[in-house]
Specification:
seven-stranded mixed sheet; Rossmann fold; alpha/beta; 29% helix; 11 strands; 7 helices; four-stranded parallel sheet; SH3 type barrels; 293 residues
Length: 293
């Protein structure tokens, strides 16, 4: 005979919530979870002890950090979980996987255990300190592996003289990054004159970007802007930008501090405009090409 009443309704885990019982999950770095009480969604950054309890720190998509007690009260892909401290074995496995997939700020795969090469004869020249600091932050690891040194020009007015003094050859090439390189500008005329040095033409590559200053090569969204402001003629561009941002702008010290904040917003090549990326990558390729026999 069939069971007209069906299975015992009290059998099984009848008290389990609709979403299922919370399952233990190790709070590995990068795991994205949601805090049930606040709705905060973020990736695990670290787990630490604070005030006698374990705290998990979550970073949201805007880079904001918030700490929560380690344990129950989280959702993973919509399912309840209990976050537990990562074990040594899983931490070591995760570190090994990260090392294998690690990339530099420029997007290149990280080379582990290799010392920086002795500087080659080739150079990349940039206009000023801010240009050099930005190139170092994003491409510094790559340049050290290749043994390429970045030098500052303090402007490009004497670019032709710099090239003649350096006397580049097949083994000692020059790459130059120029700000505000647009047809009809002073910079364009200077570059054309430098390109006329036929004796060195094969060993020099001069590229640039269209921005008034290298600051503009940082995506404005990194600073909470939709676009970089248009600064009226007769007003210092950098001071005008700082004023627009509501930052101190009355002195050169203010400019330096402002640049540090802008540079600090850059984490990788993804935070820079494509025009700058293309120029720097092409210059690096040019100065690192092995000499042809």
């Amino acid at each position: 005979m069939s069971d007209r009443y069906g299975a015992d309704v009290l059998s099984g885990d009848w008290r389990a919530p609709k979403g299922g019982r919370a399952q233990p999950v190790e709070a590995e770095t990068g795991l994205v979870v949601e805090d049930v009480d606040t709705g905060w969604v973020g990736a695990v950054v670290r787990v630490e002890k604070a005030s006698g309890m374990q705290v998990v720190h979550l970073e949201d998509r805007r880079g904001r950090l918030k700490g929560f007690p380690l344990g129950p009260g989280f959702l993973l892909d919509g399912r309840p979980v209990v976050l537990t401290a990562p074990t040594q074995a899983s931490a070591a496995q995760l570190a090994q996987a990260r090392q294998a997939a690690a990339r530099t700020a420029s997007g290149s795969r990280t080379v582990h255990g290799q010392r920086a090469r002795v500087a080659s004869g080739s150079r990349i020249f940039v206009e000023g300190r801010h240009d050099a600091e930005l190139v170092e932050k994003v491409w510094g690891d790559d340049l050290r592996v290749e043994g390429v040194v970045v030098e500052m020009l303090d402007g490009v007015d004497d670019l032709a003289a710099v090239i003649r003094d350096f006397a580049p050859t097949r083994e000692r090439r020059i790459g130059v990054l120029v700000d505000h390189l647009l047809p009809g500008t002073k910079e364009h005329r200077i570059v054309q004159a430098a390109a006329g040095l036929t004796a060195y033409r094969s060993f020099v590559k001069i590229l640039g970007h269209p921005y008034v200053d290298v600051w503009q090569s940082v995506r404005p969204q990194q600073l909470g802007l939709d676009a970089w402001p248009v600064i009226p003629r007769g007003t210092s561009w950098k001071h005008g930008v700082l004023a627009h941002l509501g930052w101190p702008h009355g002195s050169q010290t203010d400019v330096s501090q402002g640049w540090k904040r802008i540079l600090g917003s850059v984490r990788s090549y993804q935070d820079l405009e494509p025009t700058l990326l293309a120029s720097v990558e092409e210059l690096i390729d040019f100065v690192t090409v092995p000499p042809q026999e």
